[in-house]
Q: What sequence folds into this?
């Protein structure tokens, strides 16, 4: 019976050794899983940081785009004002040219009248002198 008990104890010891080995393997596997989980957590943290940087960059791009849109609207408004001013200048330029031509015409008419009067006066004097010479 002692032999049987010894065999049973030896079998139990062998089984216990196998259980210990299995527990050690499980512990090793658990350590590996923990290490993998830590790597995954680190990767997730890095991804979160990258996503946050991308979100910040996207926000900056949106702000810049809004500023560009505002500036484009200002440029369009300025171009429209310039076009209106150019049209107004073109219209008033015609009026100015007409006014200058009218002033020049009056001045020319006045000079023509003056020279006509002088010519008539000279013609009269010449006529009087011719008559005086003939008589």
A:
């Amino acid at each position: 019976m002692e032999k049987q008990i010894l065999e049973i104890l030896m079998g139990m010891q062998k089984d216990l050794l196998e259980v210990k080995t299995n527990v050690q393997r499980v512990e090793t596997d658990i350590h590996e899983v923990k290490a993998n989980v830590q790597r995954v957590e680190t990767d997730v943290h890095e991804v979160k940081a990258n996503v946050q940087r991308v979100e910040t960059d996207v926000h900056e791009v949106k702000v810049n785009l809004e500023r560009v849109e505002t500036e484009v609207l200002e440029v369009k408004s300025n171009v429209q004002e310039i076009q209106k001013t150019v049209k107004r200048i073109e219209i008033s330029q015609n009026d100015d040219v007409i006014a200058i031509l009218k002033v020049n015409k009056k001045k020319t008419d006045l000079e023509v009248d003056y020279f006509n009067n002088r010519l008539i006066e000279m013609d009269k004097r010449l006529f009087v002198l011719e008559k005086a010479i003939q008589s």
User: Anything to note?
Assistant: The mean pLDDT is 93. Residues 1-95 form one domain.
